[in-house]
Amino acid sequence: MTGQPRSVATRKIAILMADGTDAAAVTTLRQALEGQGAVCEIVAPREGTLGGLPVDRQLSAASSVLYDAVVAADGALLSASARAVFFVLEAFRHGKAVGAVGSGRQLVEAARLPNDVGVIVGDDIATAFAEAVAGHRFYDRDVSGVPA
Predict the structure, then answer these.
(1) Domains annotated on the chain, with CATH
(2) φ, ψ for residue 71 (rounded to 5)?
(3) Do 92 and 81 contact (CB within 8 A), yes or no?
């Protein structure tokens, strides 16, 4: 977006988690992003805590339109959730950065996202994902086949 500062600061990022998600990996990623000024929220199928991390928003009460980017930190359970798959698809369709760590790759695969610009998948994605989020949106994606 022209005129937008190229920074992750103030960008709101949803981190999708479920029972069994690697909380240490989420904490490391979250600290890296929040250290640059991002605002991260844990979004999960249920309220309470997951791996000692407080859930900020229940998945049934969340929408990707509330966020600037999304990270799938769990896919083992969430890949079977139509709501979680739609969350990721909608974010992609709207040109937002989509990241996946650990089993979160399974959620990206379940959503059948193409290997496209702004889709960052791996074990240590903090730097590349922050750069993608700093770019804000990826309007040149071909989203014609994305059902969201």
Answers:
(1) 12-134 (3.40.50.880)
(2) -120, 125
(3) no
Supply the pTM of this predicted model: 0.94
- Per the structure block, which two tokens stand in for 36? 């640059």
DSSP state of 64: G
pLDDT tens-digit readout, 62-116: 999 999 999 999 888 999 999 999 999 999 999 999 999 999 999 999 999 888 8
**Cα 136 to Cα 4: distance, rounded to the nearest angstrom:** 8
Please state, in angstroms and rounded to a whole number, the distance separating the CA atoms of residues 131 and 54: 26
Residue appearing with tokens 């193409």 = 114
First to last CA, the chain: 22
